[in-house]
Protein: Adenine deaminase
Organism: Streptomyces coerulescens
Amino acid sequence: MPLPKAELHLHIEGTLEPELAFELAARNGVTLPYGDTGELGKAYEFEDLQSFLNLYYELMAVLRTEQDFADLANAYLARAAAQGVRHAEIFFDPQAHTKRGVELGTVVEGLWRALGSSEANHGVSTRLIMCFLRDDSAESAMETLRAAEPYLARITGVGLDSAEVGHPPVKFREVYEAAAELGLRRVAHAGEEGPPAYIAEALDVLGVERVDHGLRCMEDPALVERLARERVPLTLCPLSNVRLRTVDTLADHPLPAMLDAGLMCTVNSDDPAYFGGYAGDNFDAVRETLALSEGRLRELARNSFLASFLEDDEELRAR
Ligand code: ES4
Ligand code: ZN
């Protein structure tokens, strides 16, 4: 039995497996610049975040209809459930779809076809978090927030993702203020490729409740001390860090040092179809390669529920 856990850092578009990409391409009459899954498979060797994002955005071309988004999310939920995920807080990138002419309503309603019945079908409770692309303008993010107002019953929070360096959190100050006024929870990617200062800025300027990645906090001892004292959850993604070369090898991952420093760490999968594993695979990898004790693994699983946006009663039922 895999350890029950919550997944807090998962981009639904990053769960698009090559087989499903080709199936949807055929269904929608979309031509991919790869002949078959074998040829596509060779494109999964990444240099850095941007080289991954290029493929991630390219393959999204196959996602066109509500049913495509429903099929994508159902495939993810089935895999997650098999690896012990009881609760998933799922990111999606509305601008990556609206800029291709796919309406926000198609994305949200399509995802909801799967998420709305996920507890019954997969035994996985869910939340939806809408991410703004930080390499697009703040104006575009604000328009996206306004366009999402009819769907806010289905959206728990906002996040910030895509190319980090050169796009500091402060760029989105007004957008996050408006999101807070709408009652939305707030998270942001910070300290993946960007400097530790972006982590402090995400907390102080955007008011985030969790930091996605946060890995580079380890370069700033005063920041580590603050994050530990304030019990700020960090949603780490070990296999992602290896594939995007944020760490040299998994054996070099700072997770054990982060736990020893008292940081509230969680282990997540980020873009599992691209980085070689789902939530359980990430747990297995750190257990084996970083030699984490059973106590540490239980701590990581417990943190995932404590750091989730579940209400207390739901959280107790999920774990
Ligand atoms: C992402 Cl790994 C990562 N970092 C930033 N933005 C993203 N969007 C999808 N995956
Ligand atoms: Zn991410």
Observations:
- Residues 120 and 130 are 24 Å apart (CA to CA).
